[in-house]
Write a structure and sequence with these properties.
mainly alpha
């Protein structure tokens, strides 16, 4: 419990005003009282130290992987997710849809810190493409392909109109 007294009505009003001042908030006239009531109820519960009836303490559930670690890394073209057993070239976006970071994913399934998030073949293809377009080089350096390539032919000068011969 808090030792300071909190005026929940004032706090709820300030939070509602802040919500409405956000330019991305598009609220109609019916939504404002509902939001204010909801915020006030939430603040009151927090001040009292009560948790809502539908809010249970987070359980440390044991997550059972959909596939084994060995099977998830069996193919160089894809990584199989331990969440749903589906194959992906990269797991980052898939993990974010489940609210996980790569470190949380590794911790959840007790994986080593070097467990890859990108399939090896996809990583190699991206690496080759980056090298081809010249990423990762210092400016002013040339690659062997640029040295072997013939120089571009010189441009022909533009034809100009003859000047008026005097009128």
């Amino acid at each position: 419990m808090m030792t300071d007294t909190v005026d929940t009505i004032v706090l709820a009003t300030e939070l509602t005003a802040a919500w409405l001042s956000n330019p991305n908030t598009r609220a109609d006239s019916d939504a404002v009282p509902a939001f204010l009531t909801s915020i006030h109820a939430s603040i009151t519960q927090l001040v009292k130290g009560d948790l809502p009836a539908d809010h249970a303490e987070p359980e440390t559930a044991e997550h059972v992987p959909a596939v084994s670690v060995r099977k998830s890394l069996a193919s160089p073209d894809q990584i199989i997710s331990m969440i749903d057993g589906k194959a992906y070239r990269t797991l980052r976006r898939h993990l974010s849809t489940h609210g996980l970071t790569p470190d949380e994913y590794r911790a959840r399934y007790k994986l080593k810190a070097d467990y890859p998030m990108v399939a090896p073949a996809y990583s190699e293809a991206r690496r080759d493409m980056a090298k081809k377009i010249g990423l990762g080089r210092k400016s002013g350096t040339t690659t062997a392909a640029e040295v072997a390539a013939p120089p571009a032919p010189p441009r022909k000068p533009r034809r100009t109109k003859p000047a008026d011969q005097g009128s």
